[in-house]
Design brief:
225 residues; alpha/beta; Rossmann fold; Alpha-Beta Plaits; 7-stranded mixed β-sheet; 6 helices; binds ribulose-5-phosphate
């Protein structure tokens, strides 16, 4: 089964977990897309929910499909968040941020009672690190942060758009995609990166997800932390 079909199956399965009255964190990316569309269908069928998007793009999609949005200031506690991932390890530690929304995604995941990851089967790995780790930096600090990442064994590459200009996040910052290879201790690396001035956020999500719904062939597998 093609990857898109696995993504759709996972997204739709996650959308079924939302209950009447829930405040829902809406993830970003091509898998979360299917969850948002499925939630829009459920809203049209009578589901009462409100959403808090993890990106401007997801906010636009949610409005298009009829989901009412609120802000994190209005509701700083979220019942359930559904979001994608670039890599998922056996403890459900994640690499996220391929779509550049890692900072808002982490804020929303951390404010959620439950984070459900949706992914196709290619995202499940034995150890994190094959996918370059996205790190959001303020432009002022880019070179010092790059040097720090090299000293930690990573190879940073600033993310650019097709026209050669810097990719900017919804927060107006740059992204370093950092190739580390196999990350032996993701929690330790996460702590070091979090302690580095100039880094706004990094894409290691440690201990945040308790459930992953992974499209596999024509089934959806449940992985639990
Ligand atoms: C965006 C993300 C995405 O969830 C992640 O990149 C996975 O995306 P996709 O479902 O398109 O493979 O972290 O910042």
């Amino acid at each position: 089964m093609a990857r898109d079909e696995e993504k759709e199956a996972a997204g739709r399965a996650a959308a079924k977990l939302v209950r009447d009255g829930d405040v829902v964190g809406l993830g970003t990316g091509s898998t979360a897309y299917f969850a948002v569309v499925a939630l829009g269908e459920r809203v049209k069928a009578g589901l009462k929910m409100v959403g808090i998007p993890t990106s401007i793009k997801t906010g636009d999609l949610a409005r298009e499909v009829g989901i009412r949005l609120i802000t994190l200031d209005e509701h700083p506690e979220i019942d359930i968040t559904i979001d994608g991932a670039d890599e998922v390890d056996p403890k459900l530690n994640l690499i996220k941020g391929g779509g550049g929304a890692l900072t808002r995604e982490k804020v929303i995941a951390t404010a959620s009672r439950k984070m459900v990851v949706v992914a196709d089967s290619s995202k499940v790995v034995a150890a994190l690190g094959k996918f370059p780790l996205p790190v959001e930096v303020i432009a002022f600090a880019r070179t010092v942060v790059e040097n720090r990442i090299v000293s930690l064994g990573g190879a940073p590459k600033v993310r650019k758009k097709a026209d050669g200009s810097f990719y900017l996040t919804d927060n107006g910052n740059q992204i370093l995609d950092c190739s580390f290879g196999r990350i032996e201790d993701p929690a330790a690396l996460a702590r070091v990166l979090s302690d580095t001035p100039g880094i706004v956020e990094h894409g290691l999500f440690i201990g945040l997800a308790k459930l992953a719904l992974v499209g596999k062939g024509d089934a959806v597998e449940e992985l639990r932390a």
